[in-house]
Amino acid sequence: MHLVLRAVPPGGLLMAVLALAPPAALAHSPPVVITPDPAAPGTSTTFTVNCASLTVLSPATSATLIGTTLGLSEHIPMQAGPHSNEFVTTVVLPAGLQPGRYQPDIDCGNGLSASAALTVNPVPVVAPGTGDGATATTANGLLSGLGLGLLGGGLVVAAAAAAGRRLRRSRD
Amino acid sequence: MRAVRGVIIALAVASMTTGIGLAILGGRTLRWAPPPQPPRSAALGAGQLGLGPRASPRPARPGRRYLPRPMARSRPLALSIPAIGVRARIISLGLAADGAPRVPPLATPFVTSWYDPGPAPGQRGTAIVFGHVDSAAVGPAVFYNLGRLRRGDLIEVLLADRHTALFRVYAAELYQKASFPRAIYSYTQWPTLRLITCGGAFDRHTRSYLGNTVVFAEYVGQG
What we know:
heterodimer; A: alpha+beta; Immunoglobulin-like; 2 domains; four-stranded antiparallel beta sheet; 10 strands; B: 223 residues; mainly beta; Sortase, Chain: A; eight-stranded mixed beta barrel; 1 helix
């Protein structure tokens, strides 16, 4: 097998691959990387597509994210990435986007089309309730208890003094 | 004899007067200080919430190796925040029917909860952990001192796969519940952790705090 491949010139090798490859492999969708995935409503999400293909030899000069399924504008131009045929765009998902699985399309300028797969997780819609206010409302029981103790003690002493006085008067 | 009786009565009156004063004072002062609040200087602009910083290449702890690589999903089991002396168990909870995040019962005020529909600590995105600020059963609860955390403080999360995710605090902020930004729950591209509890003034009529303290931490690596 190796001998056969070496005998074929580079252009011929590509043609041989094209001839032998099954149709499904040739019609593959350009790979899309989404970060982060899953995402959440309101999240800044980056789509990266590689528009290179075995079947389409011309390089792509542009790519467009179709944003309608995500509640965004229909045509979102993507910027050229650091590698050939690579395009990148970052969008902010709408805050009201429902949780679920989304498959926005990406159209490459060379005629290819990719389908991204993004999972959107549910997020809380209200702030959490995490506390019952104990530290903000509980009175200082120690101080109150000390005060009530002093009040009670004073009352007892005063009552005893009054009783002693009455006793002495009755004796007199 | 009359003089002694006069002194005793004077002391009794003084004791009662002081006691009344202390009882009133005790009723008007709090047993515990209100929860500490983060300084305004640590505030983030709302526009920055969804982004978060990239992890710094600086080692979090000299001599320890942490791989600065996002982690696979694994359930968090425990949380450690040495700066405020917190070591707590983490349970997994989701959403309540009204759209609020479920939190541990007040009867277990030292247990925290991970919002499990979202990313786990160390995964790309934002992991969220809730904890109570206080509870009538104990007073100050697990996240009572969350507002004391400052930039650079470390948070360790033990995961079910026995790895530890290390985070470094980069901001802390108090938000009003009435205008709580939903962006708090949005995801970051780099792994981040958000610790959330109640804070601010307490409304005695609604029996609820008016705000929430949020601590933002960036993923440093796994150990």
